[in-house]
# Entry
Amino acid sequence: MVEHAPQDGEALPRRREIRSFVRREGRMTDAQKRALDALWPVYGVEAPAAPLDLDAVFGRAAPRVFEIGFGMGDYLLSRVVAEPQHDFFGVEVHRPGVGRLLNRAHAAGANNLRVASDDAVVVLRDWLPEALLDEIVIQFPDPWHKARHNKRRLVQPAFAALAVSRLKPGGLLSLATDWQPYAEHMLEVLNAEAGLRNLAADGRYVPRPPTRLKTKFEARGERLGHAVFDLAYRRLG
Ligand SMILES: C[S@@+](CC[C@H](N)C(=O)[O-])C[C@H]1O[C@@H](n2cnc3c(N)ncnc32)[C@H](O)[C@@H]1O
# Structure
């Protein structure tokens, strides 16, 4: 079949972007559904028409931590509760995880959390201005094991440049994975990014950060005999 060719003046279709996730709704509990309905207006952030003013979103100016792919939100909630002086912005496309986090954040009386349920790459690129994050956290990103799927991995050179641009100078990028080939790929990509400095003494992995909780992904990796690799970088400048 011959595809319809765009005519003069007709917008060219935007090339479909490669995404690091597949949207699977999964089973949502009644509590998660209720939380999404009732608490999204409190914690949820929708796509803005212009880059977000995070001081306005949080109602104050405080150090800001951005977590990509928070899963069920256990780590994010632990930091939200332990660090009330910091503001936390989490992004996750898996809606049951968002519902669970909202429920627990509300129960904890948290007001230093905001959540988006969208592609984190789009949120970083289109929603956030440059140089405003103190920390970006990425824990156990989908490893995309098969060689033909490796291109779907979140951490790629273009993503590294985007993350650098959204961090403040001196800001921290921390990552963890239990899939060694992805850990090596992260090292290769991030060590090559001129705007970042690897904080490991040998330029490779850092010790486990004390704030990193053991999530079910890590526990499953351990059962499969996988080691966990932690990486940490600072934005230069
Ligand atoms: C393997 S899980 C790990 C979850 C959590 N960080 C943990 O350690 O338990 C990866 C998560 O990242 C989310 N994810 C992947 N790519 C994403 C993207 N571009 N934007 C938002 N979430 C994403 C997936 O939906 C999934 O929940």
In short: The chain has one domain: 52-235. DSSP finds eight helices and seven strands in the chain.
